[in-house]
Amino acid sequence: MSDIAVIGAGAWGTALSIVLGRKGIHRVRLWVYEEELRERIAKHHENDAFLRGQQIPESVIPSSNLAETLSGANIVVSVMPSQHCRRLFEQMRPHLRAESIIVSATKGLEENSLLRMTQVIAQTLDSHHSKPFRVGALSGPSFAIEVARGDPTAVTVASADAELAREVQSEFSDASFRVYTNDDPVGVELGGALKNTIAIAAGVCSGLGLGHNSIAGLITRGLAEMTRLAVACGGKAETMAGLAGLGDLVLTCTGDLSRNRTVGVELGRGRKLPEILAGMHGMVAEGVFTTTAAMQLARARSVDMPITAQMFAILHEGKTPREAIHELMTRVGKSETLKP
């Protein structure tokens, strides 16, 4: 039996706690930031704020105390928004066991440093310990509500530490949640982050009333630019053809449950970003942050990312969606197979 701490009780963190709790072999604690929500979860075994209608197993104990949540945990699952990762790990640092496995399930990049989440975690923790923490990344096509209700789902866990990946695979997998292993955390994390920007673009196309041709072309060319950046950063091209790349990209670009796609749809319909975000009731669309970081990373690596550039212009420079799509379609013609 493992002691598992899940840090973050949004929809995805709650869904993962349900996966881990329903196995019946783990002691699971779920850290909930809001005390009122923690009380409701403890009383009703349901997260009515982020995952309404999904029963949380009684084996999952909610807590608003980080030290209490982390006490004795040999696996720590990090599921907070990317922009809170560094601050929370600084608070968690005194309470973490040196031998614990840390699994990052956050899909995003830190906006100022441009670091992936496992890099943020390592930078925050390792300078204060004599031995580096063991860290992996969990990603893949996984809407939280579908995972929580037990729909068959396939994800991947990536780490340079093969033993860690196998252990997480064993602890997390069940009959409806299949975990594959991967040795490319760079590609897996960048795939999970960058696809959010392309999902916003797909939503823009839908909001403008464009058809399936547009979305198919966008997904295909979006994958191409995601792959260029991932490879430039040391990731593997084949990872981008897997669950954390193509799989997650297709899901977030076509699924109505995608928050990033929803932001794009509303932008395409003419609404402004602050108004859209204000109406999301605490939900986070990571792509809004990731687009800025991705653009800076692309410039630093001299990688051409035209879709990402146009989404940045819509989100932060006031360009209209129709202008952005027009510029993408009227770029100088190129060979599809020509390497950058």
Oligomer: single chain
Question: Main sheet, how many strands, which sense, barrel?
Answer: 8 strands, mixed
Low-confidence segments: none
Secondary structural class? alpha/beta
CATH class of the largest domain, named Alpha Beta
Strand arrangement within the widest β-sheet reads 3-2-1-4-5-6-7-8
| Measured distance between first and last alpha carbons | 49 Å
CATH architecture of the largest domain: 3-Layer(aba) Sandwich
Helical fraction equals 40-55%
> At the fourth CATH level, what is the homologous superfamily of the largest domain?
NAD(P)-binding Rossmann-like Domain
**Helix/strand order, N-terminal first:** EHEHEHEHEHEHEHEHHHHHHHH
Q: Give the percentage of residues in beta strands.
A: 5-15%
Tally of distinct domains? 2
Number of helices: 15
Q: Please give the number of β-strands.
A: 8
Provide mean pLDDT, rounded: 95
Structure description:
This protein has 340 residues and is an alpha/beta fold. It folds into two domains: 2-183, Rossmann fold (3-Layer(aba) Sandwich); 189-329, Orthogonal Bundle (N-(1-d-carboxylethyl)-l-norvaline Dehydrogenase, domain 2). It is 50% helix and 12% strand. The protein is built from 15 helices and eight strands. It has helices at residues 11-22, 35-44, 66-70, 85-92, 117-126, 144-148, 162-172, 185-207, 212-232, 243-254, 259-268, 273-278, 286-301, 306-316, 321-329; strands at 2-7, 26-31, 60-63, 75-78, 101-104, 134-139, 153-158, 177-182. It has an eight-stranded mixed β-sheet with strand order 3-2-1-4-5-6-7-8, sandwiched between helices. α8 (185-207) packs antiparallel against α9 and α8 packs across α13. The protein starts with a strand and ends in an 11-residue tail after the last helix. 50% of the residues are buried. The mean pLDDT is 95.
